[in-house]
Design goal:
The protein has 2 domains: 125 residues, Tetracycline Repressor, domain 2, CATH 1.10.357; 51 residues, Arc Repressor Mutant, subunit A, CATH 1.10.10.60. It is built from 9 helices and no strands. The chain has 211 residues and is mainly α.
Protein backbone atom coordinates (compact mmCIF):
# COMPACT_ATOMS: atom_id res chain seq x y z
CA UNK A 1 0.00 0.00 0.00
CA UNK A 2 1.31 3.39 -0.91
CA UNK A 3 2.82 4.70 2.30
CA UNK A 4 3.67 8.35 1.74
CA UNK A 5 0.76 9.64 3.74
CA UNK A 6 -0.73 12.78 2.29
CA UNK A 7 -4.26 13.24 3.54
CA UNK A 8 -6.33 14.54 0.67
CA UNK A 9 -9.96 14.69 -0.25
CA UNK A 10 -11.03 11.50 -1.94
CA UNK A 11 -11.65 12.09 -5.62
CA UNK A 12 -15.42 12.25 -6.29
CA UNK A 13 -15.04 10.12 -9.42
CA UNK A 14 -12.70 7.51 -7.93
CA UNK A 15 -14.11 4.18 -9.16
CA UNK A 16 -14.00 0.63 -7.92
CA UNK A 17 -13.09 -0.84 -4.59
CA UNK A 18 -12.39 2.38 -2.70
CA UNK A 19 -15.84 3.68 -3.60
CA UNK A 20 -17.34 0.46 -2.26
CA UNK A 21 -15.35 0.89 0.96
CA UNK A 22 -16.73 4.38 1.38
CA UNK A 23 -20.30 3.31 0.61
CA UNK A 24 -20.13 0.39 3.02
CA UNK A 25 -18.64 2.61 5.71
CA UNK A 26 -21.43 5.15 5.26
CA UNK A 27 -24.01 2.39 5.58
CA UNK A 28 -22.54 0.99 8.79
CA UNK A 29 -21.51 4.16 10.61
CA UNK A 30 -24.71 6.14 10.07
CA UNK A 31 -22.75 9.38 9.78
CA UNK A 32 -24.70 12.41 8.61
CA UNK A 33 -24.06 13.35 4.95
CA UNK A 34 -22.55 16.76 4.31
CA UNK A 35 -24.80 18.60 1.87
CA UNK A 36 -23.17 22.04 2.06
CA UNK A 37 -19.65 23.31 1.52
CA UNK A 38 -19.53 24.38 5.15
CA UNK A 39 -20.46 20.87 6.24
CA UNK A 40 -17.84 19.34 3.99
CA UNK A 41 -15.22 21.70 5.36
CA UNK A 42 -16.18 20.74 8.90
CA UNK A 43 -15.87 17.04 8.10
CA UNK A 44 -12.47 17.72 6.54
CA UNK A 45 -11.26 19.43 9.74
CA UNK A 46 -12.62 16.60 11.85
CA UNK A 47 -10.90 13.92 9.79
CA UNK A 48 -7.57 15.76 9.68
CA UNK A 49 -7.68 16.21 13.47
CA UNK A 50 -8.64 12.56 13.99
CA UNK A 51 -5.93 11.24 11.67
CA UNK A 52 -3.27 13.38 13.34
CA UNK A 53 -4.39 12.16 16.77
CA UNK A 54 -4.55 8.55 15.59
CA UNK A 55 -1.03 8.78 14.14
CA UNK A 56 0.51 10.66 17.08
CA UNK A 57 -1.18 9.03 20.07
CA UNK A 58 -3.14 5.97 18.93
CA UNK A 59 -6.77 4.92 19.19
CA UNK A 60 -6.85 5.36 22.95
CA UNK A 61 -6.65 9.14 22.52
CA UNK A 62 -9.27 9.25 19.79
CA UNK A 63 -12.00 10.59 22.06
CA UNK A 64 -14.87 12.59 20.64
CA UNK A 65 -14.26 15.51 23.00
CA UNK A 66 -10.55 15.71 22.21
CA UNK A 67 -11.13 15.56 18.46
CA UNK A 68 -13.78 18.27 18.68
CA UNK A 69 -11.33 20.51 20.53
CA UNK A 70 -8.53 19.81 18.09
CA UNK A 71 -10.83 20.54 15.14
CA UNK A 72 -12.05 23.75 16.75
CA UNK A 73 -15.71 22.78 16.87
CA UNK A 74 -18.24 21.88 19.55
CA UNK A 75 -18.78 18.30 20.66
CA UNK A 76 -22.39 18.45 19.46
CA UNK A 77 -21.23 19.57 16.02
CA UNK A 78 -18.82 16.63 15.83
CA UNK A 79 -21.56 14.22 16.92
CA UNK A 80 -23.87 15.58 14.23
CA UNK A 81 -21.45 14.26 11.63
CA UNK A 82 -20.14 11.19 13.50
CA UNK A 83 -22.43 9.70 16.12
CA UNK A 84 -19.84 7.54 17.88
CA UNK A 85 -16.09 7.07 18.14
CA UNK A 86 -16.44 3.89 16.09
CA UNK A 87 -18.10 5.89 13.30
CA UNK A 88 -15.18 8.31 13.35
CA UNK A 89 -12.63 5.49 13.34
CA UNK A 90 -14.30 3.94 10.30
CA UNK A 91 -14.19 7.27 8.47
CA UNK A 92 -10.52 7.74 9.35
CA UNK A 93 -9.50 4.33 8.01
CA UNK A 94 -11.62 4.81 4.88
CA UNK A 95 -10.01 8.19 4.20
CA UNK A 96 -6.55 6.71 4.56
CA UNK A 97 -7.45 3.91 2.15
CA UNK A 98 -8.74 6.39 -0.41
CA UNK A 99 -5.52 8.39 -0.23
CA UNK A 100 -3.34 5.30 -0.70
CA UNK A 101 -5.25 3.86 -3.63
CA UNK A 102 -5.39 7.24 -5.33
CA UNK A 103 -1.60 7.43 -5.18
CA UNK A 104 -1.35 4.03 -6.89
CA UNK A 105 -3.71 5.20 -9.60
CA UNK A 106 -1.72 8.38 -10.14
CA UNK A 107 1.31 6.21 -10.90
CA UNK A 108 -0.79 4.00 -13.16
CA UNK A 109 -1.71 7.05 -15.27
CA UNK A 110 1.93 8.12 -15.72
CA UNK A 111 2.40 7.74 -19.47
CA UNK A 112 6.08 8.69 -19.22
CA UNK A 113 6.91 5.32 -17.66
CA UNK A 114 6.80 1.88 -19.23
CA UNK A 115 4.58 -0.76 -17.63
CA UNK A 116 7.60 -2.35 -15.93
CA UNK A 117 8.77 1.02 -14.68
CA UNK A 118 5.32 1.79 -13.26
CA UNK A 119 5.36 -1.49 -11.34
CA UNK A 120 8.83 -0.78 -9.98
CA UNK A 121 7.90 2.81 -9.11
CA UNK A 122 4.79 1.67 -7.22
CA UNK A 123 6.74 -0.85 -5.15
CA UNK A 124 9.64 1.50 -4.44
CA UNK A 125 7.19 4.22 -3.46
CA UNK A 126 5.54 1.79 -1.06
CA UNK A 127 8.81 0.65 0.48
CA UNK A 128 10.06 4.21 0.86
CA UNK A 129 6.87 5.17 2.64
CA UNK A 130 7.28 2.25 5.03
CA UNK A 131 10.30 3.99 6.52
CA UNK A 132 8.25 6.94 7.75
CA UNK A 133 7.53 6.86 11.52
CA UNK A 134 4.07 8.40 10.96
CA UNK A 135 3.17 5.66 8.49
CA UNK A 136 4.37 2.95 10.83
CA UNK A 137 2.41 4.42 13.72
CA UNK A 138 -0.81 4.57 11.72
CA UNK A 139 -0.55 1.02 10.43
CA UNK A 140 0.59 -0.58 13.68
CA UNK A 141 -2.38 1.08 15.39
CA UNK A 142 -4.72 0.07 12.60
CA UNK A 143 -3.65 -3.57 12.71
CA UNK A 144 -4.04 -3.68 16.50
CA UNK A 145 -7.54 -2.17 16.41
CA UNK A 146 -8.62 -4.58 13.68
CA UNK A 147 -8.04 -7.46 16.12
CA UNK A 148 -10.78 -6.27 18.46
CA UNK A 149 -13.11 -4.00 16.43
CA UNK A 150 -15.20 -5.66 13.74
CA UNK A 151 -15.82 -2.37 11.93
CA UNK A 152 -12.09 -1.70 11.68
CA UNK A 153 -11.34 -5.30 10.70
CA UNK A 154 -13.85 -5.20 7.85
CA UNK A 155 -12.51 -1.92 6.46
CA UNK A 156 -8.86 -3.01 6.79
CA UNK A 157 -9.69 -6.22 4.94
CA UNK A 158 -11.21 -4.19 2.09
CA UNK A 159 -8.13 -1.95 2.03
CA UNK A 160 -5.87 -4.92 1.38
CA UNK A 161 -8.21 -6.29 -1.27
CA UNK A 162 -7.93 -2.91 -3.02
CA UNK A 163 -4.15 -2.89 -2.61
CA UNK A 164 -3.75 -6.34 -4.11
CA UNK A 165 -5.98 -5.43 -7.04
CA UNK A 166 -3.86 -2.39 -7.83
CA UNK A 167 -0.59 -4.34 -7.59
CA UNK A 168 -2.06 -7.14 -9.70
CA UNK A 169 -2.97 -4.57 -12.36
CA UNK A 170 0.62 -3.29 -12.44
CA UNK A 171 1.93 -6.86 -12.71
CA UNK A 172 -0.48 -7.74 -15.51
CA UNK A 173 0.52 -4.70 -17.51
CA UNK A 174 4.21 -5.49 -17.02
CA UNK A 175 3.74 -9.14 -18.01
CA UNK A 176 0.62 -9.64 -20.17
CA UNK A 177 1.38 -13.37 -20.49
CA UNK A 178 0.32 -13.95 -16.89
CA UNK A 179 -3.25 -14.95 -16.16
CA UNK A 180 -5.40 -12.83 -13.86
CA UNK A 181 -5.10 -15.58 -11.23
CA UNK A 182 -1.30 -15.58 -11.44
CA UNK A 183 -1.23 -11.79 -11.14
CA UNK A 184 -3.42 -11.99 -8.05
CA UNK A 185 -1.16 -14.59 -6.43
CA UNK A 186 1.94 -12.52 -7.10
CA UNK A 187 0.22 -9.41 -5.78
CA UNK A 188 -0.74 -11.23 -2.57
CA UNK A 189 2.84 -12.41 -2.07
CA UNK A 190 4.26 -8.92 -2.68
CA UNK A 191 1.70 -7.37 -0.32
CA UNK A 192 2.62 -9.79 2.47
CA UNK A 193 6.33 -9.19 1.96
CA UNK A 194 5.89 -5.42 2.07
CA UNK A 195 3.85 -5.54 5.28
CA UNK A 196 6.33 -7.92 6.90
CA UNK A 197 9.24 -5.64 6.05
CA UNK A 198 7.74 -2.58 7.69
CA UNK A 199 9.33 -3.17 11.09
CA UNK A 200 12.71 -4.09 9.58
CA UNK A 201 13.54 -1.26 7.17
CA UNK A 202 13.04 2.12 8.89
CA UNK A 203 16.76 2.81 9.12
CA UNK A 204 17.52 2.14 5.44
CA UNK A 205 18.54 5.25 3.53
CA UNK A 206 18.65 3.85 0.00
CA UNK A 207 17.46 0.77 -1.83
CA UNK A 208 19.88 -0.61 -4.43
CA UNK A 209 18.55 -0.97 -7.94
CA UNK A 210 17.06 -4.38 -8.50
CA UNK A 211 16.46 -5.09 -4.81
Amino acid sequence: MSRSIHITRASPDMPGVVDSIARKDAETTKSAPATTQRGRNTIERILCAAIDTFADKGYGELSMRKIAGRAGISLSNLQFHFKTREDLLGAVITRLASSYIEQYRTLARNAHLSSSERLEAALRHTLEGNREPRTQSIFFNMWAIAQTHECARSIVEKIYVAQREEIARFIGEANPRLSAHDCSLRAALISCQIEGLMSLIPAREVYPHGS
